[in-house]
Amino acid sequence: MVIKLTVSAWGVAFVLVAILLGMTIRLNRCRTLITNPYCDNPSIFKLSCENVYANNVYGLTFTVVLLTASIGSPHLFQNHSSMFDHGFVLIILHRFPQYPEYRKTGAIMFHIVPGSLNPLIYGLQSKEIHKCLSNIFHFKRVKPSI
Fold first, then answer.
1. Where would you find the membrane-spanning parts of this chain (predicted)?
2. Which residue segment(s) compose the domain that 20 sits in?
3. Which of 24, 44, 104, 146 has its CA 20 to 30 A from that of 122?
4. How many whole angstroms separate alpha carbon 47 and alpha carbon 30?
């Protein structure tokens, strides 16, 4: 069962990325400057002089489906919700070319914030770290009165 789930997850992702890559490669480019800190699909779309409506619709659908489908358990939800929020802001900022500095900041934050939250999210779930922090900050449990 684990092998079937793994193969299906990788297979679906591979097919969806192959379609997205095929749609991106077919575009003619008439510009050469990417203003983001890294190269992503919306940045490549902006280099094209062709109509990229189909690419935008597929890319947005692809992003929403994969991000929402990957939220499977509560501890993953915390990390994915942060990534989803930053990704959503970044997707929206690509639609407003008059704010390139916000888009650059959003792109950097998309990679920094979720990764920085991992030690916090997973570390606080560790009983040893939780106990140590409780001792340091002298958290006292409140016992309910009967």
1. 6-25
2. 1-69
3. 104
4. 6
Which DSSP symbol is given to 38? Answer: S
Here the tokens at position 130 are: 């939780």
Sole residue written with tokens 């990417």: 34
DSSP-derived letter for residue 117 is H
Give tens-digit pLDDT for 15-48.
988 998 899 898 998 988 888 787 888 888 888 9
- The DSSP H or E segment spanning 88 is helix 74-94
Lowest-confidence region among 9-13, 76-80, 130-134: 76-80
Query: Quick check: is 16 in a domain?
Result: yes
Measured distance between the N- and C-terminal CA atoms of the chain, rounded to whole angstroms: 48
- Global pTM exceeds 0.70: no
